[in-house]
Amino acid sequence: MAKDMTLLWCSGSVPCWRVMIALEEKNLQGYNQKLLSFEKMEHKSKEVLDINPRGQLPTFKHGDIIVNESYAACFYLESKFESQGTKLIPDSQTEQALMYQRMFEGLTFYEKLNAVIYYEWYVPEEERHDSALKRNKEALITELKLWEGYLQKVYSHLAGPSFTLADVVVFPTVATLFRFGLSAERYPKLGEYYNLLKERPSVKASWPPHWLENPKGQDTLKDI
Amino acid sequence: MAKDMTLLWCSGSVPCWRVMIALEEKNLQGYNQKLLSFEKMEHKSKEVLDINPRGQLPTFKHGDIIVNESYAACFYLESKFESQGTKLIPDSQTEQALMYQRMFEGLTFYEKLNAVIYYEWYVPEEERHDSALKRNKEALITELKLWEGYLQKVYSHLAGPSFTLADVVVFPTVATLFRFGLSAERYPKLGEYYNLLKERPSVKASWPPHWLENPKGQDTLKDI
To answer: CB A152: neighbour CB atoms within 10 A?
Structure first.
């Protein structure tokens, strides 16, 4: 089934990882895939641009259907393969509402993380300000406290007892936080959530290869 | 039905408008609503914070269910009231895929617009750079050309012949572009799309009241 699917991706990309977890959860192994290098600017190669005019990864194709936005690909896969693999949208309207809410808050979470760990990448040297980076760090701390609080109110996953699309899209952000040195002592519920989900088969199967090669991450967030 | 719903909103907010269009399309008129003032910081009032810890608008409640993120509320309303009013997710997998793709590209579109029209609001005076604003304008132009191209390939709406969730979430961005002076001569397909959708009953019913009071907008984007 997955032979008519192609994923162009890069290692450690949160959006790419979302799609890879969704593919695993829907039992869509065996898709065509190509690991590209962000450093070598391969996301701007003709191969990518032919499918994705934004020159971004993931770039995802299923037959003639192109769905490059990571959230879009996750929704598409769940809709198209609804009865296959893990059911990623719960039947309960209450859980569904919470799932949608957390999914979209997850975009803010990801943005606040990026604004700290990739500040120098996004902002040209002559436009950088200590005051801006400090503000970004404070915003990330506020965000982390929100999520720490959310996890105190639910069972084990973001929208309740079962694994849903909210976990598919938010877990890669949480894993990246710990890769960049977040303290599980300071954020124990996030630490618990990370430890639970990192053992999930779909997550293990899609773990960023360069994190496996070099298990030690950065300590950018150790004081956050 | 809509008596058990409450929407706190402000006039001219793109995220608020999305939810209001969705409510109209699902025939959910008559909900409790309160127009708050962003200038008076009413989005940080206790009334909002009690429901929405982020202190943002829209803030939306249906019975005990809280769904504040605008995309989340639109998905929730379509799922909960699937057979009521306009069907906002098409059955065709191809249209659905395109709808999801455009919805999530719509977030980038909105972000690129904000980075230009609200640059001074987002960036403290001592951190502003002409080079940054120039780059933001170039990024918005690139984005506009992408959407102009997309609209050349579809019938009348963003995901095909029918009005879908993609239109619900992206139209308020397009309307804001024209409110801020975008040239329909330079972007004729966007202009056509704007003119078609602004006559739609759900859009007319939810048109920002301060735009009605003062029909002349700004010219911030006239040279874009």
So the answer is: 9
